[in-house]
Amino acid sequence: MRLFVGGAWVEPERGHYEVVNPATEEVVGLAPEASPAQAREAARAAREAFPAWSRTRPEERAEVLDRAAALIARDAGAHARLAREESGATAATARGMQVAVAAARFRRYARGALEPVEQALPPQLTPAGPMGPASLLGALAVRRPVGVVACVTSYNNPWANPAGKIAPALAMGNTVVVKPAPQDPLSVYALARVLEEAGVPPGVVNVVTGSGADVGEAVVASPDVDMVSFTGSTAVGRRIGEVCGRDVKRQLMELGGKGAALVFDDADLDAAVRGIGSTFSFYSGQICTAPTRVLAQRGIHDRLVDALAAYAGRLPGGDPADPATVVGPVISAAHRDRIEGYVELGREEGARVVAGGERPAYGKGFHVAPTLLAGCAPGMRVVREEIFGPVVAVLPFGDEDEAVALANDGDYGLIDYVWSGDVARAFRVAGALRSGGVGVNTVARNMEAPFGGFRRSGVGRDVGSYALYAYSELQAVVWPGGR
Fold first, then answer.
1. What is the DSSP letter of 158?
2. Half-sphere exposure of 94 (CA within 13 A, CB side)
3. What is the mean pLDDT of the chain?
4. Which of 58, 309, 335, 381 is the most exposed place for a label (fewest CB within 10 A)?
5. What integer pLDDT is reported at residue 200 of this predicted model?
6. pLDDT tens track for 297-354
7. How far lies 475's CA from each of 138, 143, 256, 298, 479, in Å?
8. What's the CATH number for 3-255+457-479?
9. Residues 6 or more apart from 361 whose CB is under 8 A from it?
10. pLDDT above 80 (res 15)
């Protein structure tokens, strides 16, 4: 495996590092260990490629993105196997939520490349004055490409997450440097080969990797980078934000989450349990949108806790290659230990472990049992901090005002959820929640709706046409329309 820089596959200056299968603890492959100098060279290659790519006709960019989507679909089986092996995702998730979503995003932004970039503004009558005679001024607001975008991606979805950054950035005429998470970068190199075959010109897409932080830091700090699009932890996002602030770079940050699920007495409990239970299974809880903080109205609190505990106990875990497996491993031994540390902390804080809490005896792999904590209080760290694993904490509430106050009492604000049979109340509560999105009686997402967070959950919005806005700058064009 080599770096992809300036349209060439380049030998890494610092050799390679091992990528480990979280389920088997065996080596999946070797990823390139780039030097900071090579990271900066990738940014320079993107800078050199930008003028030509930004001037291509939208139809040409659309054709490249469409071809990429078709090529991803053509080899979807091999791509899904690789994603499963390096990320630990279950077979169904790797196939349907990683590779298939990546192809869908390239198709979506092939269409996006053709969306209008000009918005006509009302003409303005300017009276005579020091600037000249009276005139009628016409104006356009035009979206232009930002320039070179550094795409720093997360480990929980090595296909859909990079695709969600690369495709809209290219559609708008930007060039990119991709720095994947060190845990599962091999899929991103497979995506680079797809884009090369699809006809992306040299330097338009570049991929560099490293097991440490210095490669990503070199990319973000490069003077050739105009914008950073990052998905990951709030702690890392803060460091990136400091660098971007010094150089006044554009930012798109999708950071941590501690989603509150507000379940009222009149809710459909079966639907609420299925939705909240997705924390236990979907990416083994390694997803920032998970409803990990459950606020249960006292009338249904005990029934909800019992139903969630039963649901967690029915989920089959083990080898993600087995089609029957629903709960696979987490990404690494270090992350498994971190999650287990939080469960023990919950016990020390006074929470009651009603499901899980013990390491599954699968022999190999970095597994965490789906865990439910009840008897929680608002000040507990397990309630306030992002655990990023299959752990759900339950708190009781009395009335609507208390539920909203508890939900808004935290550092994050990515996606919250409301379950209630009273639709008017559900939408009223949604309007009071300080989060970038609210699911009403569902955990599903509309993939044209804006995605992003309040507070420490991020900066900016993407998905759908909002991603095209995120990867563009607005330019005003004004002209005299007559006197």
1. T
2. 26
3. 95
4. 381
5. 98
6. 999 999 999 999 999 999 999 999 999 999 999 999 999 999 999 999 999 999 999 9
7. 14, 6, 32, 53, 13
8. 3.40.605.10
9. none
10. yes
**What is the reported pLDDT for 126?**
84
Give the active site residues. 254, 288
- 68-94 pLDDT, tens digit each: 999 999 999 999 999 999 999 999 999
Does the reported pTM lie above 0.90? yes
What element of type H or E holds 37? helix 36-54
pLDDT of residue 482: 56
Cα separation, 80 vs 100, in Å, equals 9
DSSP assignment of 362-423: -SSS-----EEEES--TT-HHHHS---SSEEEEEEE-SHHHHHHHHHSSSEESEEEEE-S-H
Instruction: Check residue 363 and give its pLDDT.
Output: 84
Q: Do domains 3-255+457-479 and 260-448 have the same CATH topology?
A: no
What are the start-end ranges of the E strands in 38-157? 118-126, 135-145, 148-152
Domain ranges of the chain: 3-255+457-479, 260-448
pLDDT of residue 53: 98
Q: Which residue has the tokens 């991603």?
A: 467
Residue 292 contacts residue 286 (beta carbons within 8 Å): no
Hey, CA dihedral for 48, 49, 54, 55, is it positive or negative?
Answer: positive
Block residue for tokens 């998730």: 93
Which DSSP helix (H) or strand (E) runs through 10?
A: strand 8-10
- Mean per-residue pLDDT for 151-155? 94
SS3 200: coil
With beta carbons less than 8 A apart as the criterion, state whether 222 and 34 touch. Answer: no
Residue with tokens 């563009």, as numbered in its chain: 472
Q: What's the fold here for domain 260-448?
A: Aldehyde Dehydrogenase; Chain A, domain 2 (3.40.309)
Under the banding of pLDDT at 50, 70 and 90, the label for residue 356 is very high
> What distance in Å separates the CA atoms of residue 4 and residue 221, rounded to the nearest whole number?
19
Sorted by sequence, the CB contacts under 8 Å of residue 424 that are 6+ apart come out as none
Give the three-class secondary structure for 462: strand
The CA distance from 252 to 120, in Å, is: 26
Strand-by-strand arrangement of the 135-145 sheet? 118-126, 135-145, 472-482
Phi, psi of 320 (to 5 degrees): -65, -15
Contact between 202 and 8 under an 8 Å Cβ cutoff? The reply is yes
* Radius of gyration, CA atoms only, the chain: 24
